[in-house]
Amino acid sequence: MSRIRLAKIFLWSIVGLAAAVAVKRFLTGLGATTHLNDSIPWGLWVGFDVMGGVALAAGGFVITATVYVLNREDLHHLTRPAVLTAFLGYIAVAVGLLFDLGLPWHIWHPMVYWQHHSALFEVAWCVMLYLTVLALEFLPVPLESTSRFAKVRRFLVKYRMLLVAAGIMLSTLHQSSLGTLFLVMPFRVHELWYSPIIPILFFVSSVALGLMMICFESLVTGYLYRRKSETQLLATLSKATVWVLSVYLLLRFGDLLVRGEIGALFEGSWESGLFIVEILISAAIPIAILSHPMTRNKTGGIFLACTFGVSGFVLNRLSVGGITMLRVTEASYFPAWTEFAVSAGVVSGAALAFFFAVEHFNVWETPAREPTPEQTPAAAWARAQRLWLGSTFTAGMKVHSLAFVLACSLGFGLLAFGEERKMGVDATPVAKARGGRILRIDGNRDGFHVSFDHETHKAKLGAQESCKVCHHLKKPYDEYTVCSECHADMYLPVGIFDHDFHQVKLGGNRSCAECHPKWRNRSKETVSECNECHVRELQLTVEGAPIQANLRAKATSYTDAMHGLCVTCHTEIAERIHRPEHGKCGACHQVEKPSEEAPSWEKQQLFLSNRSVITTKLLSDKVDLNRYLVEDEDGAK
Q1: CB 213, CB 310: distance < 8 Å
Q2: 357 lies in a domain?
Q3: Which residue in 265, 319, 366, 432 has its CB near the most CB atoms, within 10 A?
Q4: Are 454 and 438 in contact (CB under 8 A)?
Q5: Distance of CA 533 to CAs 41, 472, 487, 515, 545, Å?
Q6: Taking the complete model, does pTM exceed 0.90, yes or no?
Q7: Taking CA 381 as the corner, what is the angle to CA 377 and CA 384, rounded to the nearest 5 degrees?
Q8: 187 — phi, psi (to 5°)?
Q9: Mean confidence (pLDDT) of the chain
Q10: Are residues 138 and 192 in the same domain?
């Protein structure tokens, strides 16, 4: 069996596995298919599929700029496959982003809702426009096989330089803006990766990565299709790669020296070890291999250097995008197997599309020949209509189709035995408030609490008669049921109706008509209101009338119950006493200041926890921001 056939079987298997996970992800949400949480909202899909994918697709603008702007016609042979790789790479980025978005059907929002202060808004627009430019740059290649659109092809070829210029501009913008995104995270990104010049580092590294990806793609496809090696062309690119990587290293270490962070390299932490490994495999080792003529002029040496370089810069994007944030967030994250499956499936799908293109279009610019009946546009279109899965089932299934179906079935089988999660939110049981006169409300015991003066609130709201304002429901044989009895989960609604208990108490099956007057249709839709029987237990009133509590409703989460009750009352009082800050978050969530002896990481964490409170207080113009700024050892705020 040929190399390319084995490769296609393997890739279709990966795509089949990813297809099963895709069904699960889009039907049940992120929580069922990822290990993401509130502390780690970005994982493998953003770090690899989006940030890494954009960088890996940089070869398109690098080679077009080299050929058409620097007038290096000797490298023209590499242009078409590089542009195709970039085009498919950006499509893969868009597909990967669909998996990561909580509401993927809102992916079009940046086109309508403009947030021009956002780095992501600029990235989104540049990626959309550059994807369009890449499609127009590559379109003349498939149009070569038909004369029907000859005018369109001539028009695109005539104005190719405009497309090249637009592609260079858009790539420069969004490659660097992905780094700009992390400038707003000085306390989350580790000091070895955070830098004021991180946009420049992202752009320079994308140029180096683009050059290495062109070499890597050429060598891999040449091996699979048994094509003659383009060693001389790749050696020319390798020389340029050495210079770009050298500039990258100078910028990286020069930045550490200027910022005074060079000592972090020797602190012995796992972050310093990760940094050293990343620098070695992304730049140092490729420079060492490609600098020597003996290894630079051999396919083995180029392939080894490019494999190291590509892996190293992908690791860099993963480190900046999430790995180095684990220390500050004190969270643990390792991608689920489903996350790996989707990422591998997206890449495999792009590779299969590349193989389809090179087999049906003149991507490698081979000499023109008279097409055989199997190579005509009609035959190519017929094969495309079959989605490249092979022949129809009646004519006999090909091995590609079989590999896809078997892998998809395996994926569904693995998902059936996987751990189910509740739409991205884990169950978090609520603990009762602690204290006496001053209650400490900290439902999930995470250390961030609200101090509630129970006796003062009780006195101001009407002594004993005020209890029903908060304790609006009491369980049987209970005087004033605490909130956590019904609102038993921090973030999830909880059902509080015990059907079996009511059935037994009311006399078994004969009692059904008491709650379901329309006994022929006994369902949640026909049930009576709770307060028709439980008048005394439902004590909360609205303008003198008992609250309507239907059995179809669940007790809201503890967080929603606290905010819904406290904020509503505080907002009303704030309007009455003309003190708007009384209805803001800071009225209950007090800002904490760290001690002078606290280490810098503790100050950073406290700053992050206080940030939302500070913002809320500032809106009321009652608090001076300088009170909440923290000075580090160097006196910087």
Answers
A1: yes
A2: no
A3: 319
A4: yes
A5: 46, 15, 22, 9, 15
A6: no
A7: 140
A8: -100, 0
A9: 80
A10: yes
Could you tell me the two tokens for 363? 């991507």
Average of per-residue pLDDT across 296-318? 93
Q: Which residues of 447-464 are buried (b: 16+ CB within 10 A; e: fewer)?
A: eebbebeeeeebeeeeee
Which residues in 336-357 are b (16+ Cβ under 10 Å) and which e?
A: bebbebbbbbbbbbbbbbbbbb
Residues 34/43, Cβ–Cβ less than 8 Å: yes
- The helix or strand, by DSSP H or E, that contains position 299, with its residue range, turns out to be helix 299-321
Render pLDDT for 424-444 as a digit per residue (tens, 0 to 9): 456 788 888 877 778 888 887
**Residue 355, token pair as written in the block:** 């193989």
How does strand 541-542 pair with strand 545-546? antiparallel
Domain boundary among 335, 359, 380: 335
User: Which string of b and e fits 79-108 if b means at least 16 CB within 10 Å?
Assistant: bbbbbbbbbbbbbbbbbbbbbbeeeeeeee
Q: Is residue 259 part of a domain?
A: yes
Q: d(Cα 238, Cα 234) in Å, to the nearest integer?
A: 6
* CA distances, 529 to each of 499, 535, 550 (Å): 14, 11, 5
Q: Which residue has the higher pLDDT, 370 or 513?
A: 513
d(CA 573, CA 538): 24
Range of the domain at 55: 34-335
Beta-carbon-side half-sphere exposure of residue 444 (alpha carbons within 13 Å): 12
pLDDT (tens digit, 9 = 90+) per residue, 157-194? 999 999 999 999 999 999 999 999 898 888 788 889 99
Tokens 């293109």 belong to: 357
**For tokens 């038909």, what's the residue?**
146
Phi, psi of 129 (to 5 degrees): -70, -40
The encoded tokens of residue 362 equal: 């003149």
Distance CA 102, CA 602 (A): 31
Residue 154 dihedral angles phi and psi, to the nearest 5°: -65, -40
**Is the same domain home to 200 and 293?**
yes
DSSP 8-state symbol, 371: P
